[in-house]
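Hello K.,

You asked for the raw outputs rather than the summary table, so here they are, unedited. I folded two proteins back to back in the same session to keep the settings identical. This is the first:
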Amino acid sequence: MTQTQQLRTLLLLIVCLSMMFHSEAVFSQKNINELRFSSATIIVKDLKTSASWYRKFLQFSVEEYRPDKYVKMKNDDFRLILKQGNSTLLKSQINFKEGKKYINGITKLGFATNQFDSLYMYLQKYEQIIVKDIHDDINLGLKSYVTLDPDGNLLQFFDIPNQSRLYQVDPMYFTIQSSDYINTLKWYTTHMGFEEIEIVDDSNIHFQNLLRKDGIILELVHLPHQSVETTEFMPLNRDLAQIEELSFKIGLAKTKAFELDNNGNKVVFMK
């Protein structure tokens, strides 16, 4: 690459980052009567590191900070709660029992962003791990990529362009891994009104269902019987770094419908 080409690439990166991070993050307006994400709670290994990461890359602002306890963060009407774990164990540190290698639970969050390429360049600039590079999701008709937060949680970003020059990041996707997928599928269709999306590309290693309710997409991954519950491997008096709870709401959300799904995942539904 010539010096002129290098300069052009550098200028492009500066412009992209300027568009992303010199503006307040905003969400597009949503119909209050549609299902929408309210909050997510994540148990973390190091509170300061994780809070700095979400502030830097996803533009979450800090609402409340209690050292060694929790950080409450916000991006428009979506709240992110980071909880300091006790002697926190990362998923990469798990010693699985012989023959088992999968974990049941909430494993991924996905966000729509109108600065898809700029965020990708920003993650690369700071040498963040890209678990799955930019690809076309044939089932959803969207471009996406997957990265990791500091605790190893999967975060997927989808390309949803619009005319706004302001940086937008909007929660729209979550993944549940379950070895009891038939009852899990039935639970989310019955209790939350999700409907299946036709699968065009079924090349995933494990069978996958995609479900949609309004603007929210649920990826249900069917685990083999070699999967485990956290109670099978967690040492006493230690927490696992993981997505602990998701909260959803419809309308003014005055009543709480439930707190746990059929797998025991903390899924709070307000309506």
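The second followed immediately with the same parameters:
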Amino acid sequence: MSGIFISFEGPDGAGKTTALNSLTPKLKALTEQEIVVSREPGGSPIAEKIRKIILDIHDQEMDDRTEALLYAAARRQHLVDVILPTLNADKILLSDRFVDSSIAYQGGGREIGTKEVAEINDFAIDGHLPDLTIYFDISPEVGLSRIRKDHQQAMDRLEKASLDFHKRVHDSYLKLVHDNPDRIVSINADQAPDQVVEDAVNVIIQRFPNVFNGGR
């Protein structure tokens, strides 16, 4: 495969999705390769159906391991339907979340074990990890405060979880950053949105200078 796979991670309220929407046109102006943007859970028709089940606020009785397995199932379908075809076509895939989210949220947040969740997802992704992961770091307190101030966005089932849950998620993300320095780059998400986007774009340019060079 000759394409490039970049994932974007962060706790709830980090502004990851907003930043991704802003940086995508900037990246498109810097390369001749086609850029495809996707998300998890979801990204393809079947995976989007699984997403609705996972995030439904009425499914409060869902078992934690069921949740982890559903995420892995959605990820596998997304990989087969979107990620691999995009990379095989020599395109650039930007994914709003990937495997690190499950390790942090279900493994750490739900306390079912980061090792166990990683093993479930190893089967799902079959060795296909991002070439680069950008982690938007923000404290759980600030992130949740941002979400609660956004009256236009209804909180999903995971966002409604306790502060302790989100602290465990954050701690798990920090461990992933520490354990994967060659793949994961952390940026400070508690900055002005324009600065966060600039930092993320700079990380990508520095990692792939021959691809993002003004389209030359």
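The chain has a mean pLDDT of 93.

Happy to rerun anything if the numbers look odd on your end.

Regards,
P.
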